[in-house]
Design a protein that fits this description.
- This protein has 165 residues and is mostly helical.
- It contains 6 helices and no strands.
- It starts with 6 loop residues before the first helix and ends with a helix.
């Protein structure tokens, strides 16, 4: 079960775009643009260093390169897998809530249907069902003992009635 988003393919798409951006011919861009008046080394240096906080093409490119390196290191795939598993877990929580007879969206806690506090309602409902089940078992066991005593008393009465005849 997935949450409808193919995170692995999306990560591969982003990695491919970053790979294409990395092979961009900066000399050709500089020749065609009036924006790049400084030396090209400054742009290459900003790509190798962390992205500046001001943004811009160099910062965006540095962000993409850093994201690509993280993906190559296996971080993206692990994150996508973790996100997919989280979606599957949320689906299970929703199904358990439905089996227990309520909807998570009816009384949302913390203004988020998937907040831990809201999903804890499922745990409380399951605990309530378990407590009710235990009480019913105890009541049934008490009835069985009472029925056993009634049957024993009836048997004894029949034995005495048979002796009297």
């Amino acid at each position: 079960m997935s949450n409808g988003w193919d995170w692995i393919n999306e990560g591969q798409r982003i990695a491919e775009e970053a790979r294409q951006a990395r092979t961009l011919d900066l000399d050709a861009v500089k020749a065609e643009s009036i924006v790049f008046e400084g030396p090209l080394d400054a742009i290459q240096y900003s790509i190798a260093e962390p992205a500046p906080k001001v943004g811009g093409l160099a910062g965006d490119l540095a962000d993409m390169v850093r994201e690509l390196e993280n993906c190559r290191a296996g971080h993206c795939e692990a994150a996508y897998k973790q996100n997919s598993q989280g979606g599957e877990a949320r689906h299970v929580v929703q199904k358990v809530a439905q089996v227990l007879g309520f909807r998570l969206g009816d009384a949302i806690v913390d203004r988020n249907i998937w907040s831990p506090a809201n999903m804890a309602r499922v745990i409380k409902a399951a605990q309530d069902v378990m407590n009710e089940n235990e009480e019913l078992r105890k009541e049934l066991a008490g009835r069985d003992k009472k029925d056993d005593r009634t049957v024993a008393a009836l048997r004894e009465a029949l034995i005495h009635a048979g002796e009297a005849v």
